Amino acid sequence: MNFHPEEKWIDWVDQLSLNDFVVIDDFLSEDLFKRVSAFLLHKLVEDEFDLAGIGSSSKNLKDTSIRGDFTYWLDKDRDEDLSLAFEIIEETKDVLNRFCFLSLSGYEFHLAYYPEGTYYKKHLDQFQERSNRMISMIIYLNEGWKKGDGGELKIFKEDGEQIVDPVAGRCVMFKSADVPHEVMQTNVGRYSLTGWLLYQPSGVGFVLG
Ligand code: OGA
Ligand code: NI
């Protein structure tokens, strides 16, 4: 099953190649959006989120002056309620392999919750000791987001900055190694499905040349 037609994918992939990032609205169907949101809410209520760290898992430092979000790492086998979300992630990976000649072979995703007043300072999504993250992918789950709620994604480009509002159903993809970005302070709870398409499965430690 395909979630999006090929001609749309070609356009999105073109933008990603050309600009290093792409913003796609209504990436999730209403049904899938509801499922992911309900799952997230359930995991929050069950207190299954942890304060996020900085760097790869071997050096999982926590510093809320740099990043204040809480995450729940997804597991395809355990989190069966999200099987459709894993399918759309896999479609994305397959399309990028086909049209961009990438060799993406895995992915890692988490749900993210930024409480009111938190942010994530300017950074790159690759770690010094593990640089297999090729494409960053964020899908926002903020129903009713409005100006003033904050939590915008700021993308730093050579020719200036780009602000992306974290509106519900919007997907942002960018090249993990090349695009510095930050999450501006949010004034309300901010929710997303966030992850990375990997050159090699995590733990392999492939170093980009
Ligand atoms: C990240 C990140 C951006 C966002 O988790 O590394 O930069 O808009 N997220 O949530
Ligand atoms: Ni990031």
List the helices and strands and how they pair.
Elements: H1 6-19, E1 21-24, H2 30-45, E2 50-51, E3 70-73, H3 83-100, E4 106-114, E5 120-123, E6 133-140, E7 153-157, E8 160-164, E9 171-175, E10 181-183, E11 190-198
Antiparallel strand pairs: 1-9, 2-3, 3-4, 4-11, 5-10, 6-9, 6-11, 7-8, 7-10
Helix pairs in contact: 1-3
Residues 123, 125, 181 line the site of nickel (II) ion (NI).
Task: Describe the structure using short key phrases.
single chain, 209 residues, alpha+beta, Jelly Rolls, seven-stranded antiparallel sheet, four-stranded antiparallel sheet, 11 strands, 23% helix, disordered C terminus, binds N-oxalylglycine, binds nickel (II) ion
> What is the count of distinct domains?
1
Bound molecules: N-oxalylglycine, nickel (II) ion
Radius of gyration: 16 Å
CATH superfamily: q2cbj1_9rhob like domain
**How would you sum up the global shape?**
globular
Can you describe this structure?
The structure is a single chain. The protein is of the alpha+beta class. The strands form two sheets. Strands 1-9-6-11-4-3-2 form a seven-stranded antiparallel beta sheet. A four-stranded antiparallel beta sheet has the order 5-10-7-8, with no helix packed on it. α1 crosses α3. The chain is globular and about 40 Å long. The site of N-oxalylglycine has 9 residues, from β10 and β11.
